[in-house]
Each structure stands twice: as C-alpha cells, then as structure tokens.
Design brief:
The complex is a heterodimer of chains A (136) and B (394). Chain A contains 1 helix and 8 strands, in the order αββββββββ. By secondary structure, chain A is mainly beta. In chain A, a hairpin with a 5-residue loop joins strand 1 and strand 2 (38-39). The model of chain A has no long low-confidence stretch (mean pLDDT 96). In chain B, the strands form 3 sheets. A 5-stranded mixed sheet of chain B has the order 1-7-4-2-3. A 4-stranded mixed sheet of chain B has the order 8-11-10-9. A two-stranded antiparallel sheet of chain B has the order 5-6. The chains are: A mainly beta (136), B alpha/beta (394). The A-B interface holds A 6-12, 15, 41, 66-77, 79, 82, 85, 87, 89, 97-101, 111-113, 123, 129, 131 and B 130-131, 134-135, 139-149, 151-152, 155-157, 159-160, 163, 204-210, 212, 215, 254-257, 259, 261.
Chain lengths: 136, 394
C-alpha cells in the first residue's frame, strides 16, 4: 500500500518463505526434520540441534497472550498516529513465541493468557504483518 | 575453591558527576576518572599493564578511539601497557569486565588493570539518542515492525510480573522513591529531589504500568576502577575489596524469546555466585542492584533470595531498601536517579559497591558493611549477572 511509513522487516534469505506465507495469509514456522523442534523466529540452522534440515509447516495460528503493553506516549516516531496501540508477546500452540500487536479489541480488555488467533494486515505489496485478535 | 579467591583485589575507583555537561568532553570524563583512580590507589601509573575501556554509544569515532588505545597515549603509558582492549556487554559491562580482569590477573596474564567507562548520552542530540535506544537491541525484523521499543521494556515485564505475583503498580513505583532517597545523599547523582509514590504514579503514562518517572534519564558520565593482585593490594592506600563469586545467565536477545520475564536468569546466577563465594542471601549487607526500570530490582531481589517470590514490592514499599533500612539497595540511586550513562549505569552501581565496602560513601555509608552483592543486565535486559564482593580476605 502506498504511504505505509512504519518500519518494515528487513528480510534475511532464510526468512523469505515466512513473509511469502504471510502474503498468502498463512502463518508458517520452521520444523526441524531431524529433531522435530519448532523454530521461530526463522533460523538459518535449527536452534535446538543446529541441523540445516528445516522445513516450513503451517502453524495453527492460535495461541495465548504471554504479556502485553499498551503504548500511550514516547513511542517510536513512526507510531505517533497509532497510540494507544497494544504490543504483545504471543505463545503459539506449537510452543514458539512472537512479538506482535493485538487488534480488534479495546486495549483495556487485553489480558495475560487470553486466547488469540492470527489475523493478517497488509502493509505493502511485499509485506503483510501477522497480528492477533481475541479467539472466536 | 575458585582459583581467583584471595588472589585478586579492587584497590581504587574514580567517578565524575553524572548529569548533562555539554561542555565536558567525553575524554575528560574518562581521564578524570582514571586520574582519580590512579592517584587514590597509591599505585605508580607505570605499573598499569592493561587498560580495558568499555563501549561508548554516543559517538562511533570516540568509541573507536577507546578501542585504538587513545587512553594509553593520554595517560603516558606508551610502551608500558601490554594490552588495551574493549570489554562490552551494554549494561552488564560492569560485571563482565570485572570477570575478565579477575581472570587475567589470576592467570598471570596481567598484573594491574585499569577498567574505565565514559559516555555522553545526556548531551548528545536528543532525537538521535531516542532513536538509537528505540532500535538498538530490538530485533529489527521481528519486534520493531510492531512498535516495540527500549523505552517500553519495563512495561511488558511488569505486566507479566503483576499477573503472576499479584504485585501492584504502587509497589513497583516505590522503587523509584527508594532510588531518589539514596540519590539525595549522592553528590554525583543527577536527580536528587525526593519523590513520593503518588508523584511517581501521577506522572505521564508512557505505557501500561509505566509512567515517565519510572523511566531513566540519559546522562553524561564516567567512572574507573583498578584491579590488581591481593598481594600488591597489601601495601596500598585503600582497604582492598575482594571479588568472591560470579554468576551469570544470558536469557534472550529479543524480549519475545525469553521464557520467563518474571525471573530472568537471576535464580541460577545467584546460586552460582553464592556457592562460589561460600555465602547465603542472609550474609548480604548491601544489594547494589542494577535498575533501568523499577520492575527489575523487584525481579532481582527475589532472584537473589533476599525476598520471597512476589514479596519484593511490599518489601521496597515498606522502606526496607531506604537509607537506614534492613537491606540498603542501589545506594548511588541507580539509573533511575544517578542517571543513565549507557554502559555506565551498571558501571556506577559496581563502583558504588566498591565505594561502600571501602567505607568511602560519605553521608550514605552503610556502617560495617562486609559483603555486597552487585548485579547487572544489558541490552533489553538480556542477561542476569551477580557478583559477590567482600571486605575481608577469603
């Protein structure tokens, strides 16, 4: 989209499939074919056994809020028009953790351990960000 | 027994006032601190064979000068110093540098080491520093796009901590009150006006459970200390301070990847350091705890075993960490009150532990203190370090 001014993720060669997944509204994570460990964020080698035998699998897209914060002031300059916004750490049902935003919910309703599900927000042609909303 | 015990001593320190000093060059902070440390030790400067500066954030060129032996030249030690090298772990440069120095002396690879820190984040261009600290240490691909930033760190840790322990925002805010109490007695501190819990809570809300007065203020500062053998320390001017134990754990790079934001690595780091030192939490006279934001001293007090899980907030609220309290904590006022000088915030806490054990803390001297514990954390509170220091030869 034109006019997206917030910082965009700088892709690495091994994370490109993740962002391609997001463009197709799919949340992909890596699964090590040698030790079966899930990896997120995307790794060059499995963080559990250092194998390069990593495959992309579709995650459930469901999880729970580990912790959260609503930002009111002194935010990074590019987020000036977004305050108040909710930043959260979500633990997916697969066990991996990610930083994200909680949307579709008043900030004061967000709580630790709240069930959430992924929702995709298109930022630019290239980048779609995975965010989370309360589970239906 | 750990091979360094009884073999190594800290023999002096130096420190310049923390604050905004636009006309004080960063090099002046470093040189003044080094000079104080050298003159105060009674050591001849030519005995210094190793200089370890830590990293400086405000200016890449100055930082490179420190790496490239500028101080060796300024202090007239060309041809005498054998090693000049940087040890840098952000806020935990204090503990990690001491660890390095102790290792070098024990191994016979150095005799007398000058450790030094200087930075000028307080009078550097404000927007530049805000942007720097908004992005440094935050995974650019996985956290920055969602608006997570260093200034909000305390908030996301506090939310989970409060959820798990039932602690209140009032209890967390009381840490700032304790820091200001000590800073009022510290001529080198920047924020010396005392505050009430109400004043802390009623300042502008930055993020959930984090107000402006629960944030630290960027400042200019510098400090130094000298480490040598316990044998050499015998003939010197100051009562030596002996490193007794070290413990550490690195628990994340990105905050989202930490499995327990309410404990971090402190329980393990403390256990390690206490076992090495042969002490328990009951032996601690002073807790020189790294702060940054008020949630971290609570997590640390519990990890150190000074408070039970979930009880640190009430402990601080009830003034136990104040001057005259049961457990004097961060007696220089920490980054919340002495000021945040980048890697220097932790460095100042370590220097304060040394100062207290030498009995040179003036108005805020904790009488009869024999054992101090010093802690530090770097980056987005990525690591947990615990160092035990003592006044008596182990």
């Amino acid at each position: 989209m034109k006019g997206y001014r917030k910082p965009l993720p700088q892709m690495s060669p091994w994370s490109a499939p993740f962002w391609e997944g997001c463009r197709n509204y799919e949340l992909l994570i890596q699964k090590c074919q040698d030790c079966q460990a899930f990896n997120f964020y995307p790794k060059m080698y499995c963080a559990n056994c250092l194998s390069s035998n990593l495959e992309w699998v579709k995650a459930s897209g469901k999880g729970k809020v580990y912790s959260h914060m609503t930002v009111y002031a002194y935010q990074p300059t590019e987020f000036a028009h977004d305050v108040p916004y909710v930043v959260a750490i979500v633990v997916l049902d697969e066990g991996v953790r990610m930083m994200t935003n909680i949307v579709g919910c008043p900030p004061e309703k967000v709580q630790c351990e709240m069930r959430v599900e992924v929702v995709f927000e298109r930022a630019t042609e290239e980048i779609t960000l995975p965010k989370f909303k309360p589970a239906t | 027994m750990a091979p360094f015990k009884g073999k190594v001593a800290i023999v002096s320190f130096g420190e310049v006032p923390t604050g905004k000093f636009p006309n004080r060059p960063c090099l002046a902070s470093a040189l003044e601190s080094c000079r104080q440390a050298i003159l105060d030790s009674g050591i001849q400067k030519d005995e210094i064979d190793t200089i370890i500066p830590t990293g400086t954030f405000y200016n890449r060129r100055y930082n490179t000068d420190m790496v490239f032996s500028k101080l060796v030249e300024e202090l007239g030690l060309l041809g005498r110093v054998k090693t000049n090298m940087q040890v840098f772990a952000g806020g935990s440069s204090s503990s990690t540098m001491l660890k390095t120095a102790v290792g070098l002396i024990t191994a016979g690879l150095a005799k007398t080491i000058l450790c030094v820190q200087s930075d000028k984040t307080g009078s550097a261009p404000v927007q530049e520093m805000i942007d720097l600290f908004a992005t440094f240490g935050i995974p650019e691909e996985w956290e920055t796009p969602f608006g997570f930033f260093m200034g909000g760190c305390g908030s996301i840790f506090a939310t989970r901590y409060m959820y798990e322990t039932g602690a209140t925002h009032e209890q967390i805010a009381s840490v700032v009150v304790s820091m200001r109490k000590w800073a009022a007695l510290n001529p080198n501190a920047m924020l010396r006006r005392e505050l009430t819990v109400e004043e802390v809570l009623s300042s502008k809300l930055v993020a959930t459970n984090q107000t402006t007065r629960e944030g630290n203020v960027l400042a200019d500062g510098g400090a130094a200390f000298i480490v040598t053998s316990a044998e050499r320390a015998k003939d010197l001017r100051n009562p030596p301070v002996y490193p007794l134990g070290f413990g550490g754990r690195v628990c994340h790079y990105g905050v989202s990847q930490d499995k327990d934001l309410t404990r971090l690595g402190f329980p393990e780091a403390a256990k390690e350091a206490y076992e090495m030192a042969g002490i328990t939490a009951k032996d601690i006279d002073i807790a020189e705890i790294y702060d940054g934001y008020p949630i971290y001293p609570l997590i640390t007090l519990e990890g150190l075993g000074i408070c039970e899980r979930g009880e640190a907030g009430q402990f601080v609220l009830e003034k136990n960490t104040w001057p005259g309290g049961k457990m004097p904590m961060t007696t220089n006022g920490g980054m919340l009150a002495q000021g945040h000088t980048a890697a220097g915030g932790g460095f100042a806490v370590l220097v304060e532990a040394i100062r207290q054990l030498m009995g040179k803390a003036g108005e805020r001297q904790v009488k009869g203190a024999k054992i101090a514990v010093e802690t530090s954390m770097g980056g987005t509170f990525m690591d947990s370090h615990v160092v035990v220091l003592g006044r008596e030869l182990p």
